[in-house]
Amino acid sequence: MMFDAVFFDSGGTLYGATGGPDPSPREVANGLADRVFALMQGMGVAVDDRELAAAIERAEESCRRLHGAGANYLRLIRAVVDDLGLPVGPEVAACLADAYAGPRYASWLFPGTVEAVRKLDEAGYRMGVIANTEWPGFCMDRAFAGVGLLEFFGIRLYSGDLGVEKPDVAIFRHAERLAGLEGGRLLYVGNDPEKDIAGATAAGWATAYRKVGPDDSAGADFEFLHIDELAEYCLAGPGR
Questions:
Q1: Cβ atoms of 39 and 160 closer than 8 Å
Q2: What is the pLDDT of residue 20?
Q3: What span, in angstroms and rounded, lies between the C-alpha atoms of 156 and 140?
Q4: Of the residues 35, 165, 189, 191, which has the fewest C-beta atoms closer than 10 A?
Q5: Would you call 165 helix, strand, or coil by DSSP?
Q6: Which fold has domain 5-17+106-236?
Q7: Which residues contact 47 (CB under 8 A, 6 or more apart)?
Q8: 3-state SS assignment for residue 156
Q9: Residues 195-228, buried b or exposed e (16+ Cβ, 10 A)?
Q10: Where does 31-123 have alpha helices with state H?
Q11: H or E element: which one contains 155?
Q12: What is the residue-averaged pLDDT of the chain?
């Protein structure tokens, strides 16, 4: 195999398709306050929906400022609970953070994603995810499970949990340690020229860039428009 492991970015690299029968990412995001309110009602937490929406907006404005790269939806929900003085423990707060995140639909994946990742898995590739995200890890894992990808990604690093984000080399080094592959042949697949490609390159990794069009380029080791091209590249062997 060309590499000892392949790590992927998430949004814009695995997810990013448009259209389809399901609600769009914007529609899901627009419903976050309603989902949190509905779950609170279902759990017997009395709260005014307008006060809740205002508290969520305040927390959204302050969370990143207070926590930096460690901002995530669980910390945001805890801020909302504290703001409103609600009788909500950590168990319910975790459920509310998941409701705030909402679903990610399989129709949002780029075409062929699950099939290509499965090919790499069947060929013996170790795979993982390194994502800049405010989704807590348990929410990200649930979303990956829902679209059929979790089983393939044995190592998953999420910036909101770690408090460090790409392009910081530290997050790539952490992945190396978790995989036991310090100095290994590692490939990072992403769609952001600075955070993904420049960050992984600085860590000494090989890089693959998902282009947004035929003329797009980020100076990566490999660039592709369809994930089938990436799978072929990884499976071709070092003589390619």
A1: no
A2: 84
A3: 9
A4: 35
A5: coil
A6: Rossmann fold (3.40.50)
A7: 37, 40, 84, 86
A8: strand
A9: bbbbbbbebebbbbbbbeeeeeebebebbbeebe
A10: 32-42, 49-67, 73-84, 90-101, 113-122
A11: strand 155-158
A12: 96
Tokens 């790539």, residue located: 172
In the predicted structure, residue 8 carries a pLDDT above the cut 50: yes
Structure tokens at 19: 């259209």
User: Does residue 239 carry a pLDDT above 70?
Assistant: no
What are the CA-CA distances from residue 70 to residues 133, 138, 147 (Å)?
Answer: 9, 15, 26
Residues written for the chain: 240
pLDDT surpassing 80 at residue 205: yes
Mean pLDDT (whole number) for 186-215: 97
DSSP, collapsed to helix, strand or coil, labels residue 68 as: helix
Could you give the CA distance from residue 18 to residue 5 in angstroms, rounded to a whole number? 29
Residue for token digits 């797009």? 216
Neighbours of 118 (CB within 10 A): 15
- Assigned token pair, 72: 């995530």
Q: 222-224 and 206-210 as β-strands: parallel, antiparallel, unpaired?
A: parallel
Structure token digits, residue 232 = 């072929």
What is d(CA 238, CA 78) in angstroms, rounded to the nearest whole number?
Answer: 49
- Rounded Cα gap, residues 17 and 104, in angstroms: 12
Q: Is the pLDDT of residue 1 over 90?
A: no
